[in-house]
Amino acid sequence: MSRLPVISKKRVLTTSSSSSENGQDLAPAQKKTRKDPERVKPYAASTIIGTRRPAVAAIKAPISRPVRPTGAATVAAGPSRGVLKQSIASTAPRGSNIKAAAAPTGTTAVTGGAAGTKRQGWDLKGKVTDMESKLRNYQTKVKSVNQENKDLKSMMVKSQTRVTDLETSVAVQRSQISEYEEELQALSGVREELDKVSSEKSTIAKQLSNLEDKYKVMETLRQSQETELHTLKMKLSMQESTLSRLQLTLRDAEEEVRSLGETVVQQKGELHAGEMERRQLHNSIQELKGNIRVFCRVRPLTGGGLSQHLQLPATDNKTITLAKTQESHTGKTADTQKNYNFSFDRVFGPQASQKEVFEEISLLVQSALDGYNVCCFAYGQTGSGKTFTMEGAEYDEARGVIPRAVTQIFRAAEKLGAQGWEFTFTASFVEIYNETLRDLLYTGKASKRPEHEIRKSINNEVTITSLTYEKVTNEDQVLGLIMMANHNRSTAQTSQNDRSSRSHSVFQLDIEGANVGRDVKCKSTLCLVDLAGSERLLKSQSQGERFKEMTAINSSLSNLGIVITALANKDIHVPYRNSKLTYLLQGCLGGNSKTLMFVNISPELDSFGETLNSLRFASKVNDCVIGTASANKK
Ligand SMILES: Nc1ncnc2c1ncn2[C@@H]1O[C@H](COP(=O)(O)OP(=O)(O)OP(=O)(O)O)[C@@H](O)[C@H]1O
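A: This is the predicted complex of the input protein with adenosine-5'-triphosphate.
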């Protein structure tokens, strides 16, 4: 169906009402419409086309191309009413307006004639002619419009095709755009990753630079170490050459050492033989001297000066004379002097030093290491110097027999160690008071102090039950134990005045030696005894506890004399068990031992009686010859 404008008043009115948008242009046409409403139709048709296809026109507008030289431009400009009017104007090139176009050849004159002249009412023919002329004009005009309409349709089809193409193209482009957008989106992720990678790259670059710095430092270090290594290699090669020289020297020295070793072995054998010979000779000398010897020692006077009743011959150091001046009973005769002469193995005067005294007994102490039992005891009245002789004082020169003997024993043991001897020493220190034994090395509570008994084993070894037997390895340890014993003794003394004077103290050092290489062993005991004061009190003068003490002391000391006499007489029965002292010293007295007795005497005149008694007792002992000692060798 044609979309050409239908000539109707309704359409015209519609156009007219919309013309208000462009009233300026339409105003002349409206003026004409009052005179000739038919002339408005072409404009109305154009207007309708423009208003019904605005979208196509809008799409066409940017890409419009002339479809044909004339008329097509008019359609393309459809949306604009102003342009449409121009287009309409341009569609009538053959006339300057529709009126002219509607007046083909031959009618122009008539029209002009009619327009110029008004037909008379009666000129009906003329009026018909005019009407026919008008009709023809209108037909021509319709034809022209139809043609134009046809062209426009064709243009529209083309335009629609074009629009479809363009829509397709737009769709394609949109899809491309969306693809681009997706790509862009993907690229934004890549950008983030790129940023991350670049940040990592900068970090790695920093690390690399750090590593480079470190590498430089390490390189410098390596170079210095290489230099050092080179120096060391030089030194090493020098030392290697020195070493090879030294190795040669060492080989020579080893050879020399080997030959010297052989010599040493040979000399050791000779030494051992010499040592054994020395022991034999030493023992022979001791035997010749007697297995029991008595040394007398005179204490200096307390106030200084010389004793009048004691005489010690200057040329002789073995005799002592105790002189007593007896007043004349009548007073008419001169006073008489009675001399008591005694001789002993050695007599030490008041000036004799501790060192001098010890030198005389050191050979005896040596015998203890050779495997002989040795017993040394000090006998004498209270205050005669027994403790001074046995223990001495703290300072070096005043050291007595016990510390000096200990020193000698350990030094000699050390020397014998070079000949393959190994020794073990066990020390004990016991006190005998009122026939009761007391451990002087006890360190426990006083309330738990144990009681002790003397026991004798099958092989005649005497031991004390519950006594402290302390293993010692050096001199200082032993001296420490002696100090402890003295402390224990003095503690007991505070409760009983002068207790030490009335008790015997016995220090024993058990010695065991072995020469593994030569399969020789020896065992002995060194026994050093500080006896209780030997003074005798008249029975009438002593009472109670004191009497009991004195009885015990006298009993043990007299038993000591009895035992020594029995040994001297080679009695079958020796009454060792009669007192704790003799029972304890059993191992150190008798055939298998060497005994030394110190008889200490006080130089004071008022001690004359006790001195005489002591010298008599000692003399009796001195007369004894006890068997022949034999070393405890295995
Ligand atoms: N040879 C000596 N040289 C110097 N002083 C001595 C000598 N002998 C003993 N004395 C001194 O005499 C005093 C008594 O000596 P000591 O205590 O040794 O006698 P004691 O016989 O052991 O007496 P007690 O039986 O009471 O123990 C002490 O002061 C001691 O120092």
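Residues 102 and 135 are 9 Å apart (CA to CA). Residues 290-622 form a domain with the Kinesin fold (CATH 3.40.850.10).
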